[in-house]
């Protein structure tokens, strides 16, 4: 799965988790929690768990804590995909 | 990015020096927590901000001389809660379900318990849902008592609510029951530091094994306790028999609120209504407050923690 596809899916997940219209979710790899009002510590966990479900991967607690940039999330999903 | 937030926290808490000081204590240990606190306080009505100030002033008295340690333990507690939240959102249930498990993991670990209890104390003012529930307790529970009353609280913990009850001019007598000797010691010390207005009889009792009450109470409070029990309905049914005919019970129980020692999961307003009504009460009032002042319906749908506070009377 390419990074673009992963990013696209994550954007859809974000719209769902943040309760936003998908067209209003503007994400680039550099987007962070500071750029999206709805992305706070509460929605962060829901976002990560939804990403886990969608891509059938599992993050460690330390990874969940650290992940703040969409690009890092995409890269980690990619790294955890079965070869 | 810090400066504008700091300015806004000063603005949001202008005229509420104790709440501002308490926020500062948390931020000293955890600077990244500012966005959270700003939203938490920014969502509060003037009445809830006033209650927050009252609670914060009391908390500052309890932590005097140890502020830094309490700030650290608040951060540590939030970290533990985040771990539970991850589990909860993955699995849709609380991690532990029996008292034996909670005892082995949490209650029997003095160091863990100490940090956890110190952390939870600060949440009473720093978390929107806790402050809003306290405002309800002060204004629409204690403030609504119409005549002299005898007060019973189960699981007083930090002792703040017991102390507020003691300060009510209508309050005639107070008892506080708790299963844990350590908790009772915390309550005793807190009441002393707060200069509780009346003596409080502290009794060590497991609410699930209590002897039939020797007397009746006009206001029974059980706040953030039922979710720790294997049989919450039984505890409420027992308390029904300790309530005077015209008495009121105040039940505060969290919905979708994972915590290391939470066993009983309530997922909706209906769950809470069924719990209280099923134990033989009629509900006079129910107020729901979501974490961070989120709209309650959204929070329930997203399984974000909501405090449910109920005033009931014997059916
Ligand atoms: C989280 S604290 C609640 C403190 C305070 N009431 C509040 O609202 O924040 C839970 C308290 O309930 C007590 N508790 C737990 N199980 C109990 C039981 N079976 N019988 C009596 N008290 C119990 C604990 O020892 C602790 O003091």
TrEMBL record, chain A:
Q: Which domain of life is it from?
A: Bacteria
Q: Which InterPro entries match?
A: ACP-like_sf (IPR036736), PP-bd_ACP (IPR009081)
Q: Which residues form the Carrier domain?
A: 4-81
User: Could you tell me which Pfam families the record lists for this protein?
Assistant: PP-binding (PF00550)
Q: What is this protein called?
A: Acyl carrier protein
What organism is recorded for this protein? Roseiarcus fermentans
TrEMBL record, chain B:
Under the heading InterPro entries, the entry gives: Methyltransf_12, SAM-dependent_MTases_sf
Q: Where does the record place a coiled coil?
A: none
Q: Which domain of life is it from?
A: Bacteria
Q: Name one GO molecular function term.
A: methyltransferase activity
Instruction: Kindly state a single biological-process term from the GO annotations of this entry.
Output: methylation
Q: Which UniProt keywords apply?
A: Methyltransferase, Transferase
Q: Where is the Methyltransferase type domain?
A: 152-249
Q: Which SUPFAM superfamilies does the record match to this protein?
A: S-adenosyl-L-methionine-dependent methyltransferases (SSF53335)
Checking Gene3D superfamilies in the record gives: Vaccinia Virus protein VP39
- The protein in question is named Methyltransferase family protein
State the species of origin. Answer: Roseiarcus fermentans
Taxonomy of origin reads:
Bacteria, Pseudomonadati, Pseudomonadota, Alphaproteobacteria, Hyphomicrobiales
